Amino acid sequence: MTNAIDIRSMSRTFGHSKALDDITLTVPPGAICGLLGRNGAGKTTIMSILAGQDRPSSGTAEVFGQNPFENEAALSKISFVRDNQRYPDGYRLHHVLRIAPEFAPNWNAGIAAELVEGLRIPDRTPIKKFSRGQLSAVAIVLALASRAPLTLLDEPYLGLDVTARAFFHNMLLRDYTEHPRTVILSTHLIEESEALFDRVVIVDRGRVRADCDSDETSSLAFTLSGTADAVERLSEGRALLLSHTVGNLKSVTVSGTADDDLRTQARTLGATVSPATLQELVAAFGADAPQAIRTRKGAHA
Ligand SMILES: Nc1ncnc2c1ncn2[C@@H]1O[C@H](COP(=O)(O)OP(=O)(O)OP(=O)(O)O)[C@@H](O)[C@H]1O
C-alpha cells in the first residue's frame, strides 16, 4: 500500500538555520493526523514541502508515491490552505466559491454551502474586510469542500469562535467518515482537537519527537506528582522531560511507561502516577529538558 505521506531523511535549511533536521515520517492513507509542536518547530515547513510550495534541502518527501514539487498530477490530490491565504482585491465569497472547483477536482458545492451557512460567512463584504475568524472560516470551506485525498490544514482555528470550532470539528468528522482521505492538521489547541486525531506527530526544533497512533501516546510518558521529596526519590535515574515545582509540591513528566514497582513505591510515598496527556507530552517534548519552571519567587524545580 502506498503511503499518503512518505518523508525520508528530510532536512530544510534557511541560511545557517535548520528548520527541519533529518525527518523521517510516514502517514498511511485514511487518517487524521495531528501535527503538533511549539512555535518554530517546523510544522509549516513540513506542510509547505508536502504541498509542493517548497523543496527539501536534502532527503525526499513523497505524496501518494510522488514528489509533489512542480508535479501537477500530485498537486491535484492536495489541498493546502494556509492561514495567510491572500485573495484578489474586490473578491467576495461567491468569487472564491466560483473559482475553487477549477483547482479542486473533487469539489463539493453542497458541503461548501453547509459550511458557509454554519460558519456564518458574509457574501456581501469584500474578503479584504473580513475579520481574522472569517478569513479562517473561508480557508476551512476551501479545505473541506475540496475533498482532496491529502488535506493540509495549518492552524485552521486562528480567530475562530468556540461555536465555529465545534461546528468545524463535527463537519470534518462527518465528511471524513463519508469520504475518507488523509488530513494533516497543525494546531496549538491540543485539548480541543485531540479527539479528531487517529495519528499524532510531535516535532521540536525540526526533529520528530513522536510519531504514533493516537492511542499509543499515553505510553510515551507519564506524570509523577506529590511532595518534592517523594517525586525526587521516585524519579531518580529516570529520563525527565519536564519538571514543575510549586512550594513543596512537585510534578515531573518522565519518558516511558510507569512499571508496577514504581506504582507501588508511589502509593507508599503518597505520590500519584498518571499517563501524560497529549498536551503534557507536547509541552514536555518542547522543553529544554529537564526544565525548571519558576512558579513564584525563589521556587523552582
Ligand atoms: N523562509 C524562511 N526563511 C528563514 N527561516 C524560515 C523560513 N521559513 C521558516 N523559517 C524558520 O524555520 C523554523 C520553522 O518554522 P515553521 O514556520 O515551520 O514553524 P511552525 O512549527 O509552523 O511554527 P508556528 O507554530 O509558530 O506556526 C523557524 O525557526 C522559522 O523561523
UniProtKB/TrEMBL annotation:
Query: Pfam family of this protein, just one?
Result: ABC_tran
Alphabetically, the GO molecular function entries are: ATP binding; ATP hydrolysis activity
Where in this chain does the entry annotate a coiled-coil region? Answer: none
Q: Which Gene3D superfamilies match?
A: P-loop containing nucleotide triphosphate hydrolases
Keywords, sorted A to Z:
ATP-binding, Nucleotide-binding
Residues in ABC transporter domain copies = 5-230
| CDD domains per the UniProt record, alphabetical | ABC_DR_subfamily_A
Recorded hits in PANTHER family, A to Z, give: ABC TRANSPORTER, ATP-BINDING PROTEIN, SKFA PEPTIDE EXPORT ATP-BINDING PROTEIN SKFE
- Protein name as catalogued: ABC transporter ATP-binding protein
